[in-house]
Amino acid sequence: MTSNFLSLSRISHVAEEHPDAVTAALCGILVILGSLALQFGWLGVAVLILPAAYVIGGYSSTREGLTTLFQERELDVDLLMIVAALGAAGLGLWRQEYHLIVDGAVLILIFAISGALEGYAMQRTERSIRSLMSLTADTARVVMYGGEREVAIDKLEIGDYILVKPGEIIPTDAIIIEGYSAIDQASITGESMPVEKTRGDEVYAGTINGVGALKLEVHKTPESSLIQRVIRLVQEAQTAAPPSQMFVEKFERGYAKLIVGLGLLLATLPPFVLGWNWEETIYRALIFLVVASPCALMASIMPALLSGIANGARQGILFKSGAQLEMIGKVRAIAFDKTGTLTAGKPEVLQIVPAAGYTETEVLQLAASLEAHSEHAIASSIVSAAHQQQLQLSTATDVQAKIGQGIVGKVNNQIIAIGKAEFVEATSELAQISQQLQAEGKTVVWVAKSDQLLGIIAVADTLRPEAAATVKRLQKLGVEHIIMLTGDNEQTAQHIARQLGINEVYAELLPEDKVQAIKQLQTQYQTVAMVGDGINDAPALAQASVGIAMGISGSDVALETADIVLMADKLEQLAKAISLGRRAQKIVKQNIVFALSCIVLLLAANFFGNITMPLGVIGHEGSTVIVTLSGLRLLRN
């Protein structure tokens, strides 16, 4: 009894997991039994079995076709298949050629098998996308009152402290307040190597902690976490139809009506015009309904685009819709923001030039002791450089910041001033070197003690390591024009552009100026991409044909405005995104040409050959399965 119950339970589970396959299998068994019954002359048995095959195999398609007909007042391809199958059965009964009933059942069977295969093919793409959902933890280990408690993720609040043990999934975006570990961020950013994180660094929900225990502070609500935003955007991408798909769907509605109209003409005119008999005429008209249906054409686009979206997500490239995957493949010109996009966005000390009688260490030690009291980005870079050299900083007192000029205070009872040359009242001793450094795009900070010049510190935002290679790669891919947009000064912008091989630069721009630059590019190149990361880039990202944001360094406004997000902040992913877009375009075009060619060949075979209903069905449904599988090629890197 127990074994019977388990068997039934197992069968029920299989039916729930694979409904289309089970339906196709049952339909196939009944078609075979009905065909055998006819072979043995058991007509009554066959007439009982074959209608059951029609009902089981064709129920879903009939329901969808009738729903579309009555609710949307549109003809559906599914309904055309059912009409053709029932027509074949009716013709078989009329002519007492009962093999035609089997032909109609075979049509329904192959249609059911095709639907099951397409479903499995699409599940591969959906599994890749749904795998994002499994990255999120259900609970977090919250530290409170000296103890720990498991709390549901949606109950977390800003300011909560979380403990994440080695090997665990990080439950929400948070800041490390204690601990050190290497974080596996591949699920979010596509990075193959773990990233070392310590106190003050941000970690992301869905990433995996390494060997160190971490204490985290929640700094944003769980629903605002990076992984949740990614999931929402991918879900939107799945449901948003790109222009090509919308065009094909619109075409299908008109095409289906045309097919029905031509089918009626073909079912009535040939006996009067071509001398065909009525049975042959109706049979050929039914085959026409089958082979002329645009199933393969309908399957030419979305499987390919969804596969491309899934592939991009695996590599840390988030396409917000299939339309953007199509569009990125058409890009002819690209505009880059400079700071935080082509550069790291964080200034670094690149050179220290001491005045006569002083050393680089002395200059840096005194400057860092004073700058430790400033929150300016340049001050942070000087303090960071001192920490890297493990210098002992002195205590500074009476510190005063002069906005736009510099900072002054006492270190070791001596007045130290840091800032512009005129602020520190520096002599011209290092003026020539300063001018040379500024010509190289560096910001020069002067350091003086009382009235005596100590030296100068050259600070600059450094290029991303992959920036130059990315520009070259884009040029090899055939991107016709690359420009740089920045609010920085002309001298610095030109120096950066020369290093990257970018010939056209627009400097000292306001956000609205960047928009105008994009519009100007669009008049010449039509499809233009903009790559940026800041709030000031958002208007230009919105104006561009394709807006591309840096995922980690990018502001929330830029991420929401952009069409594509490079999750790992790696510029080389831009070239991958364009290549993926071009592959998608190529595969979609191949699929459309193949689908239309199959329709033309099958129509010709119907009227000039002697194609049977089952052969017409195999050709029609086979082409549909082939274009679906062809679209899945985009799942491969």
Q: How are the SSEs placed, and which strands pair?
A:
Layout: H1 2-17, H2 19-39, H3 43-71, H4 77-95, H5 99-130, E1 139-144, E2 147-152, E3 161-164, E4 174-178, E5 181-183, H6 186-189, E6 195-197, E7 202-203, E8 214-218, H7 226-239, H8 243-268, H9 270-273, H10 278-291, H11 295-298, H12 302-314, E9 317-319, H13 322-328, E10 333-337, H14 338-342, E11 343-354, H15 360-371, H16 377-388, E12 396-402, E13 406-411, E14 414-419, H17 421-424, H18 431-439, E15 443-449, E16 452-463, H19 467-476, E17 481-485, H20 490-500, E18 504-506, H21 511-525, E19 528-532, H22 538-543, E20 546-550, H23 556-561, E21 564-566, H24 572-608, H25 613-631
Parallel strand pairs: 10-17, 10-19, 17-18, 19-20, 20-21
Antiparallel strand pairs: 1-2, 1-3, 3-8, 4-7, 4-8, 5-6, 9-21, 11-16, 12-13, 13-14, 14-15, 15-16
Helix pairs in contact: 1-2, 2-3, 2-5, 3-4, 3-5, 4-5, 4-10, 5-12, 5-25, 8-10, 10-24, 10-25, 12-13, 12-24, 12-25, 13-24, 15-16, 24-25
Distinctive features:
alpha+beta, elongated, disordered N terminus, six-stranded antiparallel β-sheet, 55% helix, 637 residues
Q: What profile does the largest beta sheet have? A: 7 strands, mixed
pLDDT averaged residue by residue: 79
> Which range does the strand content fall in?
15-25%
* Strand arrangement, major sheet: 9-21-20-19-10-17-18
Number of beta strands: 21
Distance between the termini: 51 Å
Please tell me how large the radius of gyration is: 34 Å
- Helix tally equals 25
Q: Would you tell me the structural class of the helices and strands?
A: alpha+beta
Shape designation: elongated
Low-confidence stretches: 1-8
Helical residue percent band: 40-55%
